[in-house]
Amino acid sequence: MSSAVATAIELPEVESNNFLNLLIVDDDRAVREACREVARLLGFNSLVADSADHAERLL
What are the sequence ranges of the domains in the chain? Predict the structure, then answer.
């Protein structure tokens, strides 16, 4: 991912009263989105990343 693309990433708003946070990392978009939906249904705030580098930038 180029630095120009990386700087355009917007972080989703996380509920401040919910401390169940999850970072989902997978290179397959369908897997990321399925995991995100399951996490949402279980009450987690989640961020998704398509690589370890992307995940590290989110932290």
Answer: 3-7+18-58
Cα Rg, the chain, nearest whole Å: 12
How far is it, in rounded angstroms, from Cα 59 to Cα 54?
9
Q: What is the largest CA-CA distance in the chain?
A: 34
Q: What is the pLDDT along the chain (59 residues), one digit of tens a residue?
A: 444 444 555 655 655 567 889 999 999 999 999 999 999 999 999 999 999 999 999 99
23 three-state secondary structure = strand
Determine the Cα–Cα distance for residues 42 and 31; give it in Å rounded to an integer.
17
In this prediction the pTM is 0.67
Which residues, listed in sequence order, are joined to residue 24 by a DSSP beta bridge? 48
